[in-house]
Structures
1.
Amino acid sequence: MKKKIIAANFKMNKTNRDIEEYFNTFVNNMNEFKGKGLFENIGLNSEAVFATPCTSLCESYKIIKPYGDFIKLSAQDIYFEKNGAYTGEISIDMIKDCGCEYAIVGHSERRRIFNETDETIAKKMSAVYSSEGVTPILCVGENKEVREKDMQYDFVKKQLKTDLEPLKAKSGKVYSLIIAYEPVWAIGTDLPIRPEDGDKMHRFIYDYVRSNYEVDELRIIYGGSVKESNIKELMDEPYINGVLVGGASLDPSVFLNIVRLSNA
Ligand code: PGA
């Protein structure tokens, strides 16, 4: 069975000390839920993935390691070169060293604020797949202008076509790919997508990827103003295999509740 991915993107928030407190609360609450029988099978059916800042990945790993079947780590970004004179960047080997099994690639904030192009994102995807053991969480999604013109399907298809180009060059199947559909107009705005519209786009992405690339395990997750109040209706849609949560993931009790409700 495909495990659901309930991912937290901390963005540029939290010091090491904050993160230690965060995980202590998260794990205590999780054990309490378990004690009350409120957490049955959740660990079997889903993974809670944390994209902490890179300064905290190794520290985070030390704390979450005992819960490693259920709690996983992700980098928020990686650079495509293996090593060298690239001031400020981190490589895939470096994040693997800190216990990461996932890496977010092409988040809309990287695209918009740091001018990351689809060509750069394709190089990052290629780097991830040349190194074993890390699954990319590739982010795509249209902005408000595109949605208003009803051009979102063409837009997302164009992003995917370039971003996934390295999959074509790869001989044999790609084991695992996660695509996060994150419409830019829904991120941090309190304006989530309507679940049925999200499902429609997820289905479109699913069909596009399945008919053009060889991927064993494909999961399509949704991001943009996910909260305790809307997680259940989103997860009820058949093509929504999980979520990527920004703002609402910063409180450990809220995020754990999102994990719990995603399985309810
Ligand atoms: P949000 O962010 O949940 O705060 O809308 C989601 C994201 O940027 O991944």
2.
Amino acid sequence: MRIGITCYPTYGGSGVVATELGLELALRGHDIHFISTAVPVRMADTHHRLHFHEVEVLNYPLFDHPPYTLALASQMYNVAVNERLDLLHVHYAIPHSVSAYLARAMLRERRIPIVTTLHGTDITLVGANRSYLPMTRFSIEESDGVTAISEYLRQVTIREFGIRRPIELIPNFVNCDVFKPADGATQREDYAAGTEKILVHLSNFRPVKRVTDVIEIFARVRKRLPAKLFMIGDGPDRVATEWLARDRGVERDVIFFGKQNQVQSLLNCGDVFLLPSEMESFGLAALEAMACGVPVVCSRVGGVPEVVRDGVEGFLAPVRDTEAMAERALDILEHPDLQRRMGQAARDRALAEFCSTKIIPLYENLYQKVLGSA
Ligand code: GMT
């Protein structure tokens, strides 16, 4: 198949999922055309079936706001014609499926199906401004196939938007051959001495990630045992987080790595992974840690309980309860048997439920289905 994929190329789970999906589909013989404002995050590999088409947003002095949605629709149309695309797969209803809807309407000689994957941000957007609801519902209803990345998000979308068309659950996935337990030496010794433990967090440091809670949790852990904290990523709350680390007196033990693409080698150093978010429709970063055999401590929100079972692959605790999360992290760090058992369970669950080998065929089946009924 010849597939156009659109996502935000920024540092976030949806961009990672879209990029990995494109890579995996290319390896399976499909021609993939990314249509985006920049090369998507984690797009490290090249492959003869992978192509990138930049969306240039016109900046004209009369425009207060550059017309991104229209620029994207135009480029989708151009690529669909020039590359004879079979379908468009967009990540986010707003605005990407609206652009796809326009591109489909412009392409009069044939009907190009649209698949929309929901990651949760559309819900957040409508929560912040109800006026987006009719447009979001419209673009979901007009898609030929719609997927949600967790059952939680599927249910919320149906409820919030009053959706009557089917929404398919296709969970997020991880390449279990890339994200896997270290099979030799790790970089651990470069950062931690002897028996020092390593805690890891990975996100885009948006307020919803509650990165300052990561510091609070770490400061509690650090009082009980020698440890280091890896902070991978960057974003709006980084400065506040650095400040809090100094305020809590743990700044020498916290390492800020900034944005990284090859996160697996850092995850492989971890003894426990922390994700205390306010909300996660899925929690891809936790899954990546799990695939590396690292137990996780997360907040019990959104779709996270579908990925992590409390007491099995790690622990879940109420949002904001940094004391409980620190205690659960200490349970793992102070009991090597538990750490080993949970790490193994985490790897097993990633293998059994969320490996790309299992999930990519679900997307291929959906593509076949929408092409069959186009
Ligand atoms: O959470 C973010 O800041 C990024 C956002 C995105 O759109 O990339 O993540 C959403 O999609 C990810 C991939 O499906 C999910 O793993 C995240 O849980 C979800 N974030 C939220 O629901 C807050």
